[in-house]
Write a structure and sequence with these properties.
- The complex is a heterodimer.
- Chain A contains seven helices and eleven strands.
- By secondary structure, chain A is of the alpha/beta class.
- By secondary structure, chain B is mostly helical.
- Chain B has eleven helices and no strands.
- Chain B has helices at residues 6-35, 41-53, 56-67, 72-81, 89-113, 117-125, 130-141, 143-159, 162-168, 178-187, 191-225.
- The longest helix of chain B is centred in the C-terminal third of the chain and has 35 residues, at 191-225.
- Classes of the chains: A alpha/beta, B mainly alpha.
- Chain A binds chain B through residues 44-46, 72-73, 77-79, 81, 83, 85, 87-90, 98-99, 101, 129, 131-132, 145-146, 149, and chain B through 116, 118-119, 121-129, 136-137, 140-141, 223-228.
Chain lengths: 225, 228
């Protein structure tokens, strides 16, 4: 569950965001420079909004009014970077294990690295290094690594933009499956309107600071997707 | 005249001790300076780099003022350890550490700055605290720069002459390191002693540069081809 209403001053315009997401995938779509990544980074705590409030699962992680700015590590979210940001000096397995919590919070989510690797079909790559695997595989490793932290919200920054068409459509289907399985909200940034339409149960179009909600489905409809 | 190997031992002792001091101080310093912006950062940066360009005699003179019998740190050292720095091996270690610090610092800082900030951000989103980010991501990825810095600092410490002579003097068997022994052996007409030490220093320096080039080439190949 995410509730965010904040403003962020950028060099050429002020970005204003008002989003509320309890399930499904929210697709943020818009041209380059419209502030899509800034929104993700503000939610994650990698950037600080100029004004506003962000709530994740009932916790206030940022509030300009109350001077709250929770450190990234306590926000319990997964972040998949555009260029995957896999640690080049670690094997796939070590990458995936990097963010595994020491204490498992909920027993039903007790994840083993094998489960996650198998689910994302990368079990055979366990001992490979990031520079030995393909773009699609890197993306799966990045997803596995983010999920391993048992996040309450998953943020994906143009995760499929660098992939070829076939890999892209396979991963699009898998992302939807994963979301249904994992039952946590995803925010997906994309510049591809078709991708947003295919994946998003909620779509927000950004245009240099202004946001326009172009789809908002209720829970039943989004599950149907 | 008889050949004395003691300067070699003294030089190695000084170089090892200086490198340990330099490593412990330059890595945190480079990590801090690479990541933080503050008022006067350029001034601090220039002061750190100064020993690289100043004549060794200037560095030696400054060290005498600071670490001399009446210098602020010299007095403190004498109170704590009941020993002087001037004309001791400790003085030679300090001189070597001061002149080799900028080499190590520059090398480590450049390496840390070249680490992709997204990798550090990714580690933070995975729950890592700043210390863990530095030791598990930043430092291992900057390892080439750290190793290069260590080797250069060691070689520079081994070759330090001017500042060492001013603060530690030329006491055979006590503070007479290889470069100083070469100078005074030559002055005294002991060509044999000077020649052997010159050969040792030259071969060693060659091996350092050659080894470093080979190693950095190899690690570049490795990081392109696979493995870490």
């Amino acid at each position: 569950m995410l509730k965010a209403h904040f403003k962020k001053r950028l060099p050429t315009f002020e970005l204003e965001v008002d989003i509320s997401l309890s399930h499904g995938i929210l697709a943020l779509v818009g041209p380059s420079g419209a502030g899509k990544t800034t929104i993700l980074q503000c939610v994650a705590g990698l950037q600080t909004p100029s004004w506003g409030e962000i709530n994740i699962h009932g916790k206030t992680v940022f509030s300009s009014e109350h001077n709250t700015d929770m450190p990234i590590r306590n926000r319990r979210l997964g972040y998949v970077f555009q260029d995957y940001a896999l640690f080049p000096h670690m094997t796939v397995e070590k990458n995936v294990l990097y963010g595994k919590p020491k204490k498992r919070s909920t027993p039903d989510k007790a994840l083993s690295v094998s489960n996650v690797l198998e689910m994302l079909k990368i079990g055979h790559l366990r001992n490979s290094y990031p520079n030995q695997i393909s773009g699609g595989e890197k993306q799966r490793v990045a997803l596995a690594r983010a999920l391993m932290t048992e996040p309450e919200l998953l943020l994906l920054d143009e995760p499929l933009s660098a992939l070829d068409r076939d890999t892209r459509s396979t991963l699009q289907r898998e992302l939807m499956k994963l979301q249904a399985q994992w039952q946590i909200p995803f925010i997906l940034v994309t510049h591809d309107v078709q991708e947003a339409e295919m994946l998003g149960s909620q779509i927000i179009k950004l245009d240099y600071g202004k946001q326009e909600v172009i789809r908002k489905l209720d829970k039943a409809e989004s599950l149907h997707l | 005249m008889e050949f004395s190997y003691i300067p070699i031992i003294l030089s190695l002792k000084v170089a090892f001790a200086a490198v340990i001091i330099v490593a412990c101080s330059s890595i945190p310093m480079a990590g801090f300076m690479a990541k933080r912006e503050f008022l006067g950062k350029d001034v601090v940066e220039s002061v750190i780099t100064l020993p690289l360009v100043l004549p060794p005699s200037v560095v030696g003179f400054m060290l005498l003022i600071v670490f001399g019998k009446n210098g602020p740190l010299g007095k403190l050292f004498e109170q704590w350890f009941d020993t002087r720095i001037v004309f001791t091996l400790a003085g030679a270690v300090i001189a070597a550490a001061v002149v080799s610090f900028p080499l190590m610092y520059q090398s480590v800082k450049a390496a840390i700055e070249s680490v992709d900030p997204n990798l550090e951000k990714a580690a933070r989103t995975l729950g890592a605290r700043e210390g863990r980010v530095f030791f598990t991501i930043t430092l291992p990825l900057a390892l080439n720069g750290v190793v290069a810095g260590l080797v250069l600092a060691f070689a520079r410490s081994l070759g330090e002459f001017g500042a060492t002579l001013m603060i530690a003097g030329n006491i055979p068997g006590k503070t007479q390191t290889m470069p100083i022994a070469i100078y005074f052996a030559n002055e005294a007409g002991n060509t044999r002693q000077a020649s052997i030490l010159v050969i040792i220093m030259t071969v060693f320096s060659f091996l350092v540069i050659y080894g470093l080039n080979r190693w950095s080439k190899g690690s570049r190949r490795k990081s392109r081809g696979g493995g870490a």
